[in-house]
């Protein structure tokens, strides 16, 4: 590869593919982004509902200010203003009581301590136990072998009660990691709490897109690439990589099209990548033979009346972990009723259940936390299961995650499943895309950082937490 207008094909229009394409286009490469679906976004995208003509997000996706590379990507394509950040998190327990987690003027990591102590769904004893658990996570060496263990065992060994685990640790971590604590790695559990909740007073704010994900990504990404000589091709599935003299010379697209390339970034989920990559592209046991999937279920409910004034809430003690009120964000008024999205992460128990069974269970839980739903009529309901939503972040999964380079000099990997230092999140996907862009730049003879630094620790955390891994704070690009 040279440093000129080389043609790079990116297979996969999810966040990893979009971020790789945008970063490479910004560096002067001519990029073709190939996506098999009718809209960009991948698993963090939308589908066009045939009955209503509306774009419906597959599931509610959120971010935090600690997701610095994701926010950088939004800045690049000009959509950061479409993200609304919530500075407090409502919790509604099964008794219908609402309490709020919010920051105080105290320095990190104590900024949320006053509101945490006021949470109504935790006993005083459990709050003290959780505080000790958080202190232990702060002291944990995440790179040590002891951190490569199951999170649940670690919490139980430190005196966490079943209720504290269910209503606090699981509520936060299952949502963040999309895995139950009896399977999730302690390494990533510590990362969620230390990096997001404890390191900075605003690191844990919840950012929710104010538009459907298809609108957030589609036109802005296409416009960005077109302005730099590239393009987005929807309904374009890459079915084969044409190798010549040990390099990829072209990609074949379903239906007979062929695209000559100088480099290829495969930004597909791990199993789809395994079907596309040539034999021997990766050494050792391929990730698609060892990584396990974890599902997410999204439930969409349209009510005939207003059922809550809250924009969102976490639901301790419920199978549904969160609800998101999409009505105000999408411009709906009180006469239009309420549109709620409910999220259940690591929803293996629901994979074999029917839509009716899931709706009965979900609405039963919702009636306990939002009494107005008992009197409301459901005008419409959707249940969207994503069986392969993310890989399962078990203690063994990290060793199975490959880097972005392959055994073929102009073939690169992206995707939230490669080795990014993050679990399968939107931030992890963008980091993977940026890592792929860095690898392409290096192969072109002009190495340059694309990733941006983490949110710097604030308050007391400037002394309590010092990153050991230089990759945690990559050099700022100029």
Question: What does this entry look like structurally?
Answer:
The protein is of the alpha+beta class and 478 residues long. The protein has 3 domains: 7-59 and 211-289 and 395-443, FAD/NAD(P)-binding domain (3-Layer(bba) Sandwich); 106-198, Guanine Nucleotide Dissociation Inhibitor, domain 1; 293-391, Alpha-Beta Complex (Polyamine Oxidase, Chain A, domain 2), CATH 3.90.660. It is 29% helix and 21% strand. The protein is built from 13 helices and 19 strands. It has helices at residues 15-26, 68-77, 113-117, 124-139, 151-157, 162-177, 186-198, 213-226, 270-276, 355-369, 397-400, 426-443, 461-464, and strands at 7-11, 30-34, 46-48, 55-57, 83-86, 88-92, 98-102, 206-209, 231-233, 238-244, 247-253, 257-260, 263-266, 293-303, 312-314, 322-325, 338-345, 378-391, 411-413. The strands form 6 sheets. Strands 9-2-1-13-19 form a 5-stranded parallel sheet. A 5-stranded antiparallel sheet has the order 15-16-17-14-18. Strands 10-11-12 form a 3-stranded antiparallel sheet, with no helix packed on it. α4 packs across α6 (162-177). The longest helix has 18 residues, at 426-443.
What would the average pLDDT be, to the nearest integer? 93
Number of strands: 19
Q: First CA to last CA: what distance?
A: 23 Å
Shape: globular
CATH topology of the largest domain: FAD/NAD(P)-binding domain
Q: What's the number of domains?
A: 3
CATH superfamily of the largest domain: FAD/NAD(P)-binding domain
Q: Structural class, from helix and strand content?
A: alpha+beta
- CATH class category label of the largest domain: Alpha Beta
Q: Return the CATH architecture of the largest domain.
A: 3-Layer(bba) Sandwich
- What's the helical proportion of residues? 25-40%
The poorly predicted ranges are 469-473
- Placed side by side, the strands forming the largest sheet appear as 9-2-1-13-19
Major sheet attributes: 5 strands, parallel
